């Protein structure tokens, strides 16, 4: 578990949870348990994704994948354990931080929905089924990205906002921001898979193309994918316009531009 979760990475989802909490006037400490939990869920998903039965990748975050180091059985269990620990940590940590129980429960519901058949699991199944399919189109690819990538980004932001005290309207604006951001992140990843090296990415470059996966550069062309990324960035930032220029707002603008 430590091998994968302490391997580095951009930590976009945890930063997003804390920034969304601050955006609505909450203290960063209130969102720390959610931030840790969402990174555990994300890490569990890529431990499983990298296994030979799925994406079969030997490199993650510049280090050998979990199953390469510890074997497939241990990697499978490490991912399962991180999923369980995520929810235990939200429950214990949020209570210790003084987050009201009803808000903790809403955060748990968001994270659980993002990790299961309404999120990552469904997206991964669709992704595997679509490999090598020359008839793949944008609607099918968007389904994969919304479930496999954007849904957990949404959950991170909404959970952070909720434990920070957000009302329903603000939480939904944060959700829309994160939805666009989640798709943007995947479009950028697709572009980098074509244009960057394995050393720059910390994972195997060109693997999506080799597997025949539907990607934005494949369906829109490289320049078309870059243009779409610009549209998503504008839509994401528009959702922040109504918030005060609080620390969380600054973080969120910086996060979207950093992609």
UniProtKB/TrEMBL annotation:
Cofactor: Mg(2+)
One Pfam family recorded for the sequence: polyprenyl_synt
This protein's UniProt keywords: Isoprene biosynthesis, Magnesium, Metal-binding, Signal, Transferase
GO MF term (any one): prenyltransferase activity
Pathway: Isoprenoid biosynthesis
InterPro entries linked to this entry: Isoprenoid_synthase_dom_sf, Polyprenyl_synt, Prenyl_diphosphate_synthase
Gene3D superfamilies in UniProt: Farnesyl Diphosphate Synthase
Any one GO CC term of the record: cytoplasm
NCBIfam families: FPPsyn (NF045485)
Protein family according to the UniProt entry: Belongs to the FPP/GGPP synthase family.
Record's protein name: Uncharacterized protein
Organism: Panicum virgatum (Blackwell switchgrass)
